[in-house]
Amino acid sequence: MTDVHIIGGGLAGSEAAWQLAEQGVKVRLSEMRGSGEMTPAHQTDGLAELVCSNSFRSDDAEKNAVGLLHQEMRDLNSIIIGEGDQHRLPAGSALAVDRDHFSEGVTKRLSEHPNIEIVRERVDQLPESGLTIVATGPLTAMTLAESIGAATGEDSLAFFDAIAPIVYKDSINMDIAWMQSRWDKVGPEGDGKDYINCPMDRDQYYAFIQGLLDGEKPTSSNGKRTRPILKAACRSR
User: Fold this and answer.
1) CATH superfamily of 4-152
2) Over the stretch 125-170, which tens digit does the pLDDT of each residue have?
3) Where are the domains positioned within the chain?
4) From residue 6, how far is each of 27, 37, 45, 61 by CA, in Å?
5) Who has greater pLDDT, 236 or 143?
6) Percent of the chain having pLDDT more than 90?
């Protein structure tokens, strides 16, 4: 018997399922990927797959509010931060992760939890009864988005995110780029030189922005364009 139904197996849905299950609550976690459905941004059917940046931002609990939140989540046995710690990459004082191993770790732990049932299905309507957590994010199926809009009385639902373009490493001219972390901070796995820094003058910067705007863009489930993907942002000069 299910106590709580969670729709969406991203970061929020995965964390909610884990926290409830650890408290003895029976959870049904619905995720449409793996049922024959896929989004324009995802590459796998793994839970908590990161489709944008692989960084959870600052991990400094003493001087940064985000880092303090990370520590609070660790204290609460967070599966997201726990797996992030297991699969972290050098990133100065930030918490960055190997996105593939991170998702695999979250999926494995949720799949093995006795209080969690993972169902690969697309949910088109909000359940009429029972406790439900909707954690479907910006790539919600259009039918479910319409159901959420009807339930909330909103004409439209919006999602705001920063753009994190993907740059191929071999497109970067390392004769002019250099390795250095922000403020030279040394993280647990790094040496203070964890980021590639690409210098740009004004014209190069605006060319970069225009390349981003002109780059390939995926189409969402409702047929609208989503955030752009820039395949090769840096060119040797």
Assistant:
1) FAD/NAD(P)-binding domain (3.50.50.60)
2) 999 999 999 999 878 888 998 999 898 887 777 666 666 677 788 8
3) 4-152
4) 7, 18, 17, 30
5) 143
6) 55
